[in-house]
Amino acid sequence: MTQALDIARWDLECEFNNTDHRTNLNGFDRLIVRRGQTFTINLYLRSGVYQPGASSLSLLVETGPQPHDQYGTRASFDLSETIDTSRWSAAVSSPPGDTVALSICSPADAPIGRYILTLGGSGRIEFILLFNPWCSEDVVHMESEEQLNEYVLSQDGIIFRGSFKYPIPTPWNFGQFESGILDACLRILDMNPKYVRNPGKDSSGRRNPIYVSRVLSAMVNCNDDKGVLLGRWTDDYDGGVSPMSWKGSVEILRNWDTSACQPVRYGQCWVFAAVACSVFRALGIPCRVITNYLSAHDTNSNLVIERYVDEDGQPIQKSRDMIWNYHCWVESWMTRPDLKPGFDGWQASDPTPQEKSEGVYCCGPVPLKAIKEGELTFKYDGPFVFAEVNADILTFMKKKDGSIEKIIGSSQVGQKISTKSVGSDRREDITHLYKYPEGSEEEREAFKKADHQNKLLTQQGQYEGLHVTIKVTESMLKGCDFDVIALVTNNSSVDKECRLVFGSRAVSYNGILGETCGYKNLINVKLSPGGERRVPLRLNYSKYKDALTQDNLIRLAALLVDYSTREAVMAVRNIVLDNPEIKVRILGEPKENRKLAAEITLQNPLPEALESCCFSIEGANLTGGRSLTERLDSAVGPGQDAKVKIYFTPTHSGLRKLVVDFDSNRLCHVKGYRNVIIGK
Asked: How far is CA 291 from CA 415, 416, 427, 431, in A?
């Protein structure tokens, strides 16, 4: 006959357990553990002592509002001699006595979330269970410790923006371990419509990272639910702030959580992706942000982007298909037991609301391997992601008489697919994970497998007539005047006479065209066989300053029409204007809990004064989970420095990233950062 343990009190050993489970950056005020890994609590007995074989204890764990054994959201178990990692189990790891060290382990496929552990009739313990990529039995298991540090534990990173010719690193504070963020992430799961409809089934689904990925993809945007972010792709940000103003995910997630789940205004693709990355990492799923340059948005699922221009090379809107200058999404790491072997590893998910999937604005997860091989029948949303990186572009000219003529061009989507390198701020090119080399036999085979039968466009280098490319200077600083060049060459053996239309327009990163910045129409360009001509187009600050969007992008287009053959050739290129560099100097010795100053300087590159100047900083474990701001009292003239000191106190040692934002009436949301090593 066994005697039930008479428990007076317990100690959850939060500091030891949280450190052992790598959740210590969440703090030690509560128990946060990872599935498939043992944690230990100390039980202090009111009377009697623990005796192996003579003492008993019944335990019950429950998660969700409708816990049920069938759903795997409820489990009852007794003490056993050893831990069984295939199910909920508990064993005593201390010698007989009035203090009991109780080791408890969850199975590696337990649903994640908030749990209640009941110890016999003695009381209830609350704890949080997360995915465990360090556990070989967990489907999110990742082998490399260096990658785990980057894709789960790193609280800051780099997101690449700019253009494919000139990728610009933008710092971001993911802040997944900042105070209140894990609670906000769990609330996102609880606010999703599937949970509202059937909380028992949804809670059970949280054992599966595929299911969780799909929920997060839908919930980071607010299009169908009480999701986190509202997107806006115009320059009207009334009722909110420009997406450019965000420096990290912490403020966004806190604003959503503390405002009764009202959507935060506003986001664009890199903000949606960055917030999703913060949530994935907070829950324990390895995640990284991806940038795809010249990203196709295929609205009719034919894997072709059709563009129309008039005889002056100006776009005509005949299709909703777009080419985004860049587009960001996330990849999460997991196995795919729902698919045939060979499709484990990185899976693409896209929280930016573009097209509906199963009636909801979400996308993914789809294996990168499936995209590369053209396996588009696999779940989820393979055709859409495939088109983003590999669609063909067809350009047509609509003439004044109504006839349509195909234009020879060389535009290719899916360029320089980029992410931050492991352990450094360098750009890693991962294009090879999504596609075979452009024009290769394997790439064309992938197209055929994707049921795409369009003929490969004639490559520009193979065309024997007229040829046009656009050349730019290395430095194109915002505020300066500079030239861009249309280089026209005659690759034929006969004299050519042609018309060149060379124009520039402001453009937003998602491909929406704005005002003209410069235009040239040469109706009589003559070229001898093998000859070439450089045609400059001057871009003046006075002309482009009011046309530019916050993306600092200008679209250059050169249309060449051969009078003898009536064939048209077109080159299109987006350029990004450089913002000035932000210089950051740290004053003081960087130590935990020691006040430091950041001296921040920016030189005004414009030929006019900057007004309403403001610097702000934030950084994980540096600024207390909030943004610190300093405003300048006076305007900053041309060539003058804007300079401030902002004080902050680091709370944790290690390598940290201080993210800086400068805003003014003419230079909007210039980003910079400084890596700081904080000593103990």
From this structure: 9, 8, 10, 10
Domain holding 489, by residue range, is 460-576
Is 269 noted as a catalytic residue in this protein? yes
User: Do 602 and 554 belong to one domain?
Assistant: no
Boundary of a domain, candidates 91, 113, 130: 130
Beta strand spans in 82-147 (E): 89-92, 99-105, 113-119, 123-130
Q: Which residue type does 455 have? A: K
517 and 598, same domain (yes or no): no
Alpha helices for 284-406 (secondary structure H)? 368-373, 382-390
Instruction: For residues 422 and 258, give the distance between their C-alpha atoms in angstroms, rounded to a whole number.
Output: 34
- The verdict on residue 151 lying in a domain is no
- Per the CB < 8 A criterion, the answer to whether 330 and 271 are in contact is no
Q: Report the C-alpha gap between 376 and 385 in whole angstroms.
A: 9
- Spatial distance between the Cα atoms of 625 and 459, rounded to a whole number of angstroms: 51
Q: What is the pLDDT of residues 593-635, one digit of tens each?
A: 999 999 999 999 999 999 999 999 999 999 999 999 999 999 9
More confident residue, 578 or 234: 578
3-state secondary structure 183-244: HHHHHHHHHCHHHHHCHHHHHHHCCCHHHHHHHHHHHCECCCCCCCEEECCCCCCCCCCCHH
Please give the backbone phi and psi of residue 207, each rounded to the nearest 5 degrees, phi first: -75, -20
Same domain, 216 and 260: yes
Q: Is residue 144 part of a domain?
A: no
- Compute the chain's Rg from CA coordinates: 29
Q: Is residue 152 part of a domain?
A: no
Computed over every residue of the chain, the mean pLDDT equals: 93
Q: Where are the beta strands (DSSP E) in 214-367?
A: 229-231, 264-267, 287-297, 304-309, 315-316, 322-334, 345-349, 366-367
How far apart are alpha carbons 317 and 507 in whole angstroms? Answer: 15
What DSSP state is assigned to residue 73? S
Q: Which of 202, 298, 350, 562 is catalytic?
A: 350
pTM of this structure: 0.93
Distance (Å, whole) CA 500 – CA 494:
18
Helices 269-283 and 209-219: angle between axes, nearest 10 degrees: 140
**Domain CATH code at residue 393:** 3.90.260.10
Nearest to 522 by CA among 330, 313, 672: 313
What CATH number does residue 617 fall under? 2.60.40.10
- 222 has catalytic annotation: no
Whether 111 contacts 64, CB under 8 Å: yes
Domain end position, chosen among 547, 576, 605 = 576
Length of the chain: 680
User: Residue 135 domain-assigned?
Assistant: no
Catalytic residue selected from 327, 452, 467, 669: 327
Q: Give pLDDT, residue 457.
A: 32
Domain match, 436 and 358 both:
yes
Same domain, 168 and 274: yes
Confidence band of 452 (pLDDT split at 50, 70, 90): very low
Indicate whether 248 and 269 sit together in one domain: yes
- Quick one: average pLDDT of 81-109? 95
Same domain membership, residue 119 and residue 28: yes
Residues 508-528 pLDDT 10s: 999 889 999 999 999 999 999
Residue 14 catalytic? no
Nearest to 577 by CA among 615, 539, 629, 610: 539
- When divided into structural domains, the chain yields a total of 4
HSE value, Cβ hemisphere, 13 Å, CA-based, for 130? 26
Question: What does residue 245 show for φ and ψ, rounded to 5 degrees?
Answer: -75, -20
Closest by CA position to 278, among listed 254, 257, 258, 249? 249
Is residue 334 located within the same domain as residue 373? yes
User: Whole-angstrom Cα distance, residue 304 to residue 272?
Assistant: 26
